[in-house]
Amino acid sequence: MSRINFQQKLGELKERLLVMAGLVEQGIQRSTEAYLSKDLQLCELVLQSEPAINRMEREIDRFALDLLATEQPLAGDLRLVLAVIRIKSDLERVGDQAVSIVSRVKELATLPSAEIPVDIPRLAKVSVAMIRNALQAFLVGDAALAQSVLMADDEVDDLNRQTFSTLATVIQEQPHLTPQAFNTLVISRSLERVGDHATNIAEDVIFWVHGDDVRHQGSPSA
């Protein structure tokens, strides 16, 4: 494979990932909108997009592994291919979280409406922004933007903890609202996981751009 042809293949690999990313980002946006607006049609659109996301993940995997096997890239090119392999897995899991959210939205639609004082809209806004910024960082190779995504994860974790605490109180004091509280808790947890996947993507962007492995640096065992 000539150098020019190899660079074209790398560009195609990146383009395939961005197409998948667009579908995933749309899915998580629609799932949060479905929760906020109680729009069941949006739920169906999210569910219908899942097979395409799964197919894209498999296609990107095969394309990337073929590049590694035939070209044996080095340095930045190798890091790009490895980053794509990891990022597409996180994207697929974000798609799974979107499906989890709309499943709970559909379940909530069958229950009596309840006003539960949790800030899911803020949690959704920050989580979706993290995914969007992580993907933008990958698109332009911006490690500083990727670093800002890592910092935003603390707010998502705090909001999720606050939601859990509030819902635990609701279940204790108003047990008849347990089904509503439980479904809301799963949605909160799904959004927190979206933030975790955005963090993973941001770490992969930093690895690609600078060659620095920043995973688990906040872990006590790192």
The geometry reads as: elongated
* Content-based structural category: mainly alpha
Mean pLDDT: 92
Euclidean distance between termini CA atoms: 40 Å
List unreliable stretches of 5+ residues: none
Rg computed from alpha carbons, rounded to a whole number of angstroms: 19 Å
Largest sheet: none
Elements, N to C (H/E): HHHHHH
Number of helices: 6
Our estimate of the beta-strand percent is under 5%
Q: Please bin the fraction of helical residues.
A: over 70%
* Number of DSSP-assigned strands: 0
Quick gist of this model?
It is built from six helices and no strands. It is mostly helical and 222 residues long.
General description of the model:
This protein has 222 residues and is mainly α. The protein is built from six helices and no strands. It has helices at residues 3-37, 40-71, 75-109, 120-140, 143-173, 178-210. It comes from Terriglobus aquaticus.
